[in-house]
């Protein structure tokens, strides 16, 4: 059966996104087993830094340094464009937020991306958009040709368990490039203990935030498309990575070039 077209989006950068719902896709998600030992939902082809950033189902081989950043750029552009068109709140997190702080771009050594949503948003995505495929049309920046990629929004059925558990399912959802398996990790935040600690939010990987650090969210731009970041983004980054992360100009074999405002790989002219 062919997918049913459910939504047509006008994308920036001369791109268009088309959301495709898979009939009967609810049957593709396994039922939650009645056990405290949750099996891992998302699987990667390996556990190291090289292989741990691909979805096993779509992995065809490691994407080289010269190509991975362009793939990540299309990942985040498509994700932010589709979520905005759907009216779904999401914001940049972790290393992706740090890349935004430096120059509004992905760090060249990153091989995946991170965003966050609320637990209520996760439930909404799981109820209405789980296992939907999204076709994203874009212009190749090198050739000028029109190309198309298809992305999968996959919500982990264990997202409803807001405790860390055995640590196998701290990632609540993923936005996955079906051409190579590269992905955006999506994690949900919920109030940790609203009775004793109201206004304190946490994900299953023990990152905690005050409501006043998150809201009101700030609208900005990342990789050429509209994006959202937490209100106290600087304090969040300092708490997670240290103050040095906002000033150190050498990292992961790259140097910050203040003339062009970009990270440049050491040894490159």
Automatic annotation (TrEMBL):
Intracellular or extracellular location(s): Membrane
What does the record say about its membrane topology? Single-pass membrane protein
Q: Name one Pfam family in it.
A: LicD
- Would you say which domain of life the source belongs to? Eukaryota
Q: Does the keyword Transmembrane apply?
A: yes
LicD/FKTN/FKRP nucleotidyltransferase domain residues: 85-191, 204-242
What keywords are annotated for this sequence in UniProt? Answer: Membrane, Signal, Transmembrane, Transmembrane helix
Give the residue range of the signal peptide: 1-19
Presence of the UniProt keyword Cytoplasm in the record: no
Classification via InterPro entries? FKTN/MNN4/W02B3.4-1, LicD/FKTN/FKRP_NTP_transf
The record's Gene Ontology biological-process terms are:
glycoprotein metabolic process
The cellular component terms of Gene Ontology attached to this UniProt record, alphabetical and capped at eight, are: membrane
- What protein name is recorded for this chain? LicD family-domain-containing protein
- Give the originating organism: Coniella lustricola
């Amino acid at each position: 059966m062919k997918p049913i077209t459910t939504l047509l989006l006008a994308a920036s950068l001369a791109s268009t996104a088309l959301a495709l719902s898979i009939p009967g896709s609810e049957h593709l998600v396994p039922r939650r087993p009645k056990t405290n030992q949750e099996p891992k939902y998302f699987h990667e082809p390996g556990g190291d830094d090289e292989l741990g950033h691909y979805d096993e189902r779509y992995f065809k081989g490691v994407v080289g340094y010269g190509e991975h950043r362009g793939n990540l750029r299309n990942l985040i552009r498509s994700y932010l464009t589709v979520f905005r068109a759907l009216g779904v709140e999401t914001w940049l997190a972790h290393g992706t937020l740090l890349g935004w702080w430096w120059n509004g771009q992905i760090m060249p050594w990153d091989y995946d991306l991170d965003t966050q949503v609320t637990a209520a948003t996760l439930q909404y995505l799981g109820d209405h958009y789980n296992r939907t495929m999204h076709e994203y049309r874009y212009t190749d920046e090198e050739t000028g040709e029109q190309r198309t990629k298809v992305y999968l929004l996959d919500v982990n059925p264990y997202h409803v368990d807001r405790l860390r558990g055995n640590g196998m399912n701290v990632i609540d959802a993923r936005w996955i490039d079906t051409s190579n398996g590269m992905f955006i990790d999506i994690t949900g935040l919920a109030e940790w203990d609203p009775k004793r600690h109201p206004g304190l939010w946490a994900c299953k990987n023990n990152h905690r935030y005050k409501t006043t650090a998150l809201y009101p969210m700030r609208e900005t731009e990342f990789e050429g498309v509209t994006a959202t970041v937490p209100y106290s983004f600087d304090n969040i980054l300092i708490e997670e990575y240290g103050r040095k992360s906002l000033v150190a100009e050498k990292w992961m074999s790259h140097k910050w070039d203040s003339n062009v405002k970009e990270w440049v790989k050491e040894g490159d002219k």
